[in-house]
Design brief:
InterPro entries: Glyas_Bleomycin-R_OHBP_Dase, Glyas_Fos-R_dOase_dom, VOC_core. It comes from Spirosoma liriopis. By secondary structure, the protein is α/β, with parallel strands linked by helices. The protein is built from two helices and seven strands; from the N terminus they run E-H-E-E-E-E-H-E-E. It is globular, with a radius of gyration of 15 Å.
């Protein structure tokens, strides 16, 4: 039996030539801290609480997929307002008991979920 401990990182694909745009979005809009280094495949890495987000350029069409990372946040409504200040469209999906959530898309079509567990 595999005993998972935690999520370590998520890798999202970005179009070729868009690393600078990704760096700006994830630093300035999302407020993440970049992890410096010469990462495999020219990836850029960001810290999110105790996990990492890795972004790497890949050629070809980017599918408009529902695949996504989900990030638990405190004060979901404040996170939503912060994103709206950057004119980021907020998307909603089916309701799940015990949590509130919404989704955004980064500049490359990657879907990102923000959620907060209800007391």
């Amino acid at each position: 039996m595999i005993q998972f401990r935690r999520l370590d990182h998520i890798l999202l694909s970005i179009p070729e030539g868009e690393t600078a745009t990704a760096r700006t979005f994830y630093t300035n809009v999302m407020g993440l801290t970049e992890i410096p280094g010469n990462h495999p495949g020219g990836a850029i890495w960001f810290a999110i609480a105790n996990i990492q987000l890795h972004l790497r350029e890949e050629g070809g069409e980017q599918p408009y997929s529902k695949r996504h990372p989900a990030f638990e946040v405190s004060q979901l409504e404040l996170a939503k307002k912060a994103l709206e200040q950057h004119a980021i469209p907020i998307e909603y999906s089916s309701e799940i008991d015990g949590r509130q959530r919404f989704f955004i898309r980064d500049p490359f079509g990657n879907r990102i979920e923000f959620l907060e567990f209800l007391p």
